[in-house]
Amino acid sequence: MPFVATFGATGTTNHNRSFEHKAKDGPHCAYCPCDGLKPDELPDGSLDQFRSWLHFTLESADFSMLARILSIIIMILIFISTVSFCLETIPQLEDLQIWITLECIVVTN
Questions:
Q1: pLDDT digit string (tens) for 31-75?
Q2: Nearest by Cα to 99 from 109, 86, 108, 79
């Protein structure tokens, strides 16, 4: 039997539901603040609006241009980290100072 990952209160995977769901269907994930309401559906300047904006910015690359840029940066950092980890295991390259520098850059971002 193949492994099937399920997330959220409804037991559906997050990638099967589009970002454009309605709040009446419930939150798009189990940990969604403000019952899945988008920032423009909440009072301006409220803490809940900020929490919702932050959640959707970090959760969905389709939410805004900033969300897309952040997801691209995160993917690039993961790629750099993975490649540097692999290269660091090569005996001829393991003593290079660049690995410590790369690790500091990737971890602090």
A1: 777 776 777 777 788 888 888 888 888 888 888 899 999 999 999
A2: 86
CA 102/CA 77 separation, integer angstroms: 10
Q: Are the CB atoms for 29 and 11 separated by under 8 Å?
A: no
Q: What are phi and psi of 64, to 5 degrees?
A: -160, 175
DSSP string, 37-75: --GGGS-TT-HHHHHHHHHHHHH-TTS-HHHHHHHHHHH
Q: How many domains does the chain have?
A: 2
The DSSP 8-state label assigned to residue 19 in this structure reads: T
A 10 A CB-CB count for 28 gives 21
Q: Domain check: are 9 and 47 in the same one?
A: yes
Q: 36 and 80 share a domain?
A: no
